[in-house]
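Posted in: Structural Biology > Protein-Ligand Complexes

Title: Requesting predicted complex, glycine in pocket

I'd be grateful if someone could produce the 3D structure tokens for the following input. Sequence and ligand are given below.
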Amino acid sequence: MKKFTISTEKPYDVIIGEGLLADTGRYLRALFTPRKVCVITDSTVNALFGKTVSDSLRDSGFQVSTVKFPAGEHSKTLTTYGNILEAMAEDAITRTDLVLALGGGVVGDMAGFAAGTYLRGVDYVQVPTTVIAATDAAIGGKTGIDILGGKNLAGLFWQPRLVLCDYSTFDTLPVQRFNDGVAEVVKNAVVSDANLISHIRDKRYEYVLERCISIKRSLVEADERDTGLRQLLNFGHTIGHGIEKLSAYKESHGQAVAKGMVAEARGAYLAGYTGNDISGELAGILESFGLDTSLGYDPEEIFRLARMDKKIRNGKINMIIPEAIGRCSLRKLTLDELRTFIWLGLTGSRPS
Ligand code: GLY
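-- Reply #1 --
Done. Output follows.
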């Protein structure tokens, strides 16, 4: 078992280990007196781990209610969000109760958004059960839902009170869900630590979690509200989010980010923002994990969606420029430059 403290405005611990779920109640009792816990989860995760977590919470004196929704990105909507709030009200959850997000990135984002907005804010705990959530989404307080205009366009920063990562849950992940997480680990490798690639290949989960969490911790502590350095963690996401949306979420998040990373690396090189073209090496790594890196998307459509990117400020966007696997920088682009960058990344040519 390892513990990290994330020193945001309200600090909290991230605990990683094997078999932690059966002790969820004990970990929560170290922080909270007995109270109601509203477990928010999806249908798949509830069937796998819902009982273990609820039993553990009850054994530690908590009252438990469960709100669940169908698994998948297509659930991350205003409708599901509304249903969660109504269920919380039905269960008479108050400001002194607690929300527990049990699941992957979709559950964590939705439960965090519900916790942050219900009664103007209720404490919550993240219990991620996927690689993508444990290495990235559950840490740092980003919450949100998709709206018709794009992915994660409604949300708030709401830091959890505790993050409990039990990596034995990864053993239940279907290959595609596991590979989704691999894409985010490769992202961390490009941003900060090339060695991560061999460690995830060997499934050394504890090491991978420790490294990804410490990379994330330093960026979140430096830039809690995502106005500067934290944006490095968005490598591949400007084009990746567009791909997710254009595919009507048929491309999973990790899969879309894998394509986005290759396109953004190629765009950065062809636009002359770096002397190094890592796109071929990166594509090779991603493909070796079974991720598809083909880029058959309309650049103009991706640009239309990228104009909604949350990194845009005063008509400019910080793009993440990979200099090597393990080293990236930020570069401010105008929207015209962003359009050219997207064209170059997706097609190899400039817009006519
Ligand atoms: N997922 C990127 C971040 O939390 O900033």
